[in-house]
Amino acid sequence: MKSLFRPEMESDPPNITGGNPLIGNSVSNHRTRLPEGSATVRAPGVCGELVQGMLGDAYFLVTCPIDFFSRVRVELHSGAPEVSGPDNCPKAAEAVWAALVYLGRDELGATLTVNNPIPRSKGMGSSSADVAAAIAATGLALGRELSPTEVARLALSVEPTDGVMFPGIALFDHREGRVIEELGMPPPTEVIALDFGGSVDTLEFNRVDRRSLWQSLQPETDEALRLVRTGILEGDPAKIGAGASLSAQAGQHVLPKPQLPRVLDFAESVGAAGVNVGHSGTIIGVLVDAMQRRGRSIFRQAREAFPEAEEAHHFRIFAGGMQVVE
Asked: What ranges do the domains of the chain cover?
């Protein structure tokens, strides 16, 4: 089904730092729509984060992008300044409108098509991928290639977001965008993603102020970040895995995962690099050095070891950021 996203015409349009237009129900509009341009972009989902915590008073996460994508097509038209799209993707529609306003073309409307197999409310960045791809596609439809930083800041005007718009691995303030750093390309790494059920509303989760709790965990998350930085610099999955495992255990104080101790034991028993989690989700990942060519075997062992898991996936960490789909 399609829903309609229309701006409040009596008020000022939103800018890059906030203020969102009204989301309304479907309204028929008989004005002639003329095509103005179109583009399709895909953005990766994530398997949780490699690290999450605080740097000073700023929240941060370190991305864990995977080869699992949201594909978004934006078709622009004149005649009606509104965005129509799938009912289950309201934030992507908001993102298109935010991009149109930012680019000074809020007289246009758009039709949004989203093809996204990434599970929602699991800590896999499904909405973040939709939003990033929608913003990038809107820019390209207008002949403008937006930088990852521009896409990130526009995305943050819509909702807290993973840093999936950046190539490689990024350190990113997912709430306010005050810290943005590209850490580099990851070494070849596979991820066995385990979903033991349940869901987390990320927007509601991020509305709770956990600043003091995260600050109390800063010694652990600082060390986790140091290990992951070093692992990326040296191309060492083991150091990345060690840092991710440390952050996952620190995250137990924020959003406990009963299965995490067993997954950590499993990872050690099969010689995996480490374990990472969705710190505001349910997903748990087993990180595997892809150069050892044992990913498929460990995936099979994981399915046998955790028969209660509702889903098990085998991914690779993806370093490409957003991509144009021809």
From this structure: 2-324
- Rounded distance, CA 52 to CA 317, Å? 17
- pLDDT computed for residue 7 by the predictor: 55
Q: For residue 212, give the 3-state DSSP assignment.
A: helix
> Cα–Cα distance between 255 and 213 in angstroms, integer?
11
Looking only at the bridges linking them, the beta strands covering 284-289 and 274-277 are: antiparallel
* Structure confidence by residue, pLDDT tens digits, 174-196: 988 888 899 999 999 999 999 99
Read off the tokens for 121.
């409310």
The model's pTM: 0.88
CATH for 2-324, options being 1.10.10.10, 3.30.230.120, 3.40.50.300, 3.40.640.10: 3.30.230.120
> Which residues are CB-neighbours of 82 under 8 A, at least 6 positions away?
4, 5, 6, 7, 29, 109
Nearest-angstrom CA–CA distance, 273 and 245: 9
* Torsion, CA 264, CA 260, CA 195, CA 217, rounded to 10: -110
Helices (H) and strands (E) in the chain, counts: 9, 13
Type of residue numbered 50: L
What is the three-class DSSP state of 27? coil
Phi, psi values for residue 64, rounded to 5°: -130, 70
Nearby residues of 229 by Cβ (< 8 Å), 6 or more positions away: 183
CA 193 to chain centre: 15
Q: How confident is the model at residue 33 (pLDDT cuts 50, 70, 90)?
A: low
Sign of CA pseudo-dihedral 9, 12, 16, 21: negative
Task: Share the mean pLDDT of the chain.
Answer: 89
Q: Strand pairing of 323-324 and 34-55?
A: antiparallel
